[in-house]
Amino acid sequence: LFLLWLTSFIASPKFAVFRNINTSSKLLGNIEVNWKKRVLQSVLSQCVRYPNLIVNQSIAMYEDFRKVFKINSTLVINNPVVSNGTVFVDEAVKIDSIYILFVGRLEKQKDLDFAIDSFSRYLDKSKSKVTLVICGEGTEKERLKSKVVSCGLSNSIVFLGERREIASLSENAHCLVLTSLYEGFPNVLLE
């Protein structure tokens, strides 16, 4: 976002496209301090006037974006799922139990605290051998890993980091968890 804003002052290209990946009203709505919200809305309003076109991943994002920023140069292009039938198997990943899969950025928006807490309660009640597999990277990774250790869940929760291909993991998972506080378009569900 900052680079987009900076670029608008440095260069004036003939055509620029900006991809909207979150629901704007939710992004602004999660800021609790009013002055921060006003500053962010002001900066975003300037940034979104720079591109010739803004691409949204869903109709809901498109409608929300137009409502928040009053911009008409926007359209919807849903992300397709393209598969050539090839499944990449990650030989380094060996999970010998039923597992629940999370795939995404490890950021506050994804609310992995809720997933970890819920998983912990489930293990306490069920006493079954289940693993929570977390695929992704982000600013919350080290804090989440520390939480897992402090909750005594190191043997039940595995952090695999970023994965190039998740098809084999998702095909063998018992279920997928999506705990996001908000989503523009949940790509992991589509995939």
State the end-to-end CA separation.
26 Å
Share of β-strand residues: 15-25%
Rg result = 20 Å
Mean pLDDT over the residues:
77
Briefly note the structural class of the backbone. Answer: alpha/beta
Count of alpha/pi helices: 8
Instruction: Write down the overall geometry.
Output: elongated
Order of helices and strands: HEHHEHEEHEHEHEH
Q: What does the largest sheet look like?
A: 4 strands, parallel
Side by side, the strands of the main sheet go 6-5-4-7
Q: Kindly state the percentage of residues in helix.
A: 40-55%
Low-confidence stretches: 84-89
Got a strand count?
Answer: 7
Descriptive terms for the model:
8 helices; alpha/beta; elongated; 7 strands; four-stranded parallel sheet; three-stranded parallel sheet; 191 residues
What's this, in brief?
The chain is built from 8 helices and 7 strands, in the order αβααβαββαβαβαβα. With 191 residues, the chain is an alpha/beta fold.
Describe the structure.
The chain has 8 helices and 7 strands, in the order αβααβαββαβαβαβα. With 191 residues, the protein is α/β, with parallel strands linked by helices. The strands form 2 sheets. It has a 4-stranded parallel sheet. Strands 1-2-3 form a 3-stranded parallel sheet, covered by helices on one side. α1 packs across α3. The longest helix has 16 residues, at 34-49. The two termini are 26 Å apart.
